[in-house]
Amino acid sequence: MGRAKLPRKSTSIDMTAMCDVAFLLLSFFILTTKFKPAEAIAVTTPNSVAAKVAETKDIVLITIDKDGKVFLSMDDESKKEVIANTLNSTKNLGLNVQAFKKAGFFGAPFSGLAAFLAIPEEARKGAALPGIPSKDSTNSEIREWMSLVLTAYAGQKANIQLKGDNAAKYPAFKNVIDAFKKNDILKFQAEMDTSGGGGHKKGPGVKKSKKLSTRVDLTPMVDLGFLLITFFIFTTTMSQPTAMKLFLPKDADKPEDQNKAKESGVITILLGKDDNVFYYEGQLDNGASNFKSSTFKEIRNVLLDKKARTPEKDLVVVLKPSEECTYRNVVDILDEMAINMCKRYALVDISPVESQLIKITEASIAAPAK
């Protein structure tokens, strides 16, 4: 007599317990995670090839918004307390020291700081604030702020960072740089699915038997996957800010103290409005015959050609942003220095003659062809 047939069952894994653990972990992380608050100053930073992760401790952040207004923020309340007490003693501002310590950022002139601190934290929005005065070189309060910061840190390391909006005009950036240089701050950072099958034998006298495939119920695993995704969305920093290190030279009062460069090795790049780029090699001719127009796409080839024709020790790139160029343009040209491995370059003020040449050339470019 034949043997009794035993039914074959698929393998099943019960993951209910794992789902319970995942729910508990998710609840724990939601309750303990500190979410990133919404920024009171809206800034769209430019893209860059910089890959260095920005510092996250002892931060002194200078922010420039699209209108060129300047704001300052610090993460160390003890240092902010020192600054508040200093302002009260030297300028007699009558500031609320506790409110000053808890303020997320500062964006008002010294005369309006007390009124600024009286505004509720949630109502302090950069667009509605005047910012720290910095446009007038004779009364640059951001220069005084940086002096106060250095006094508060009293020899300790402060991580100075600069954050600017794409659309911010270059003069706002330059005024902050000048404030750094006046306080001998020459190093700072400027913030991307189962199935199975079976077989059977065929032959005379052999009865076919049904084989069931091995089946794993992945429904609980899908639930777990969604829970983990939710957890990581809540707890993960979606974008890690990066920073570019910049070193500033000291201003030289005497011509003999300035760095000398061989004329044949110098190329000057000028930045205009609407992403326009201009350049000339050596000194500018009287008739500006060597003054040429370019673009950000073409300037890389110009730099590579200059490098090929110039000994490395003689090559110097002079960068001259105009008042109409944006903060993004400055970052873009600094990126080109890094990409093309130009080791010697300097950010220099543009001359009136060069500024006028740019305006004339841009006007001719914009004029409709007849």
In summary, what is this structure?
The protein has 370 residues and is an alpha/beta fold.
Mean pLDDT: 81
Helical percent range? 25-40%
Which class best fits the helix and strand makeup?
alpha/beta
Strand adjacency order, main sheet: 10-9-8-11-12
Helix and strand pattern? HEEEHHHHEHEHEEEEEHEHEH
Total count of helical runs of at least 4 residues: 10
Unreliable spans = 192-209
Main sheet record: 5 strands, mixed
Cα-based radius of gyration, to the nearest Å: 31 Å
Terminal CA distance reads 106 Å
Strand content: 5-15%
Query: What's the overall geometry?
Result: extended
Q: Would you report the number of β strands?
A: 12
Task: Write up what this structure looks like.
- With 370 residues, this protein is α/β, with parallel strands linked by helices.
- It is 35% helix and 14% strand.
- Among the domains are: 52-191 and 242-247, no CATH class; 255-366, Nucleotidyltransferase, domain 5.
- It contains ten helices and twelve strands.
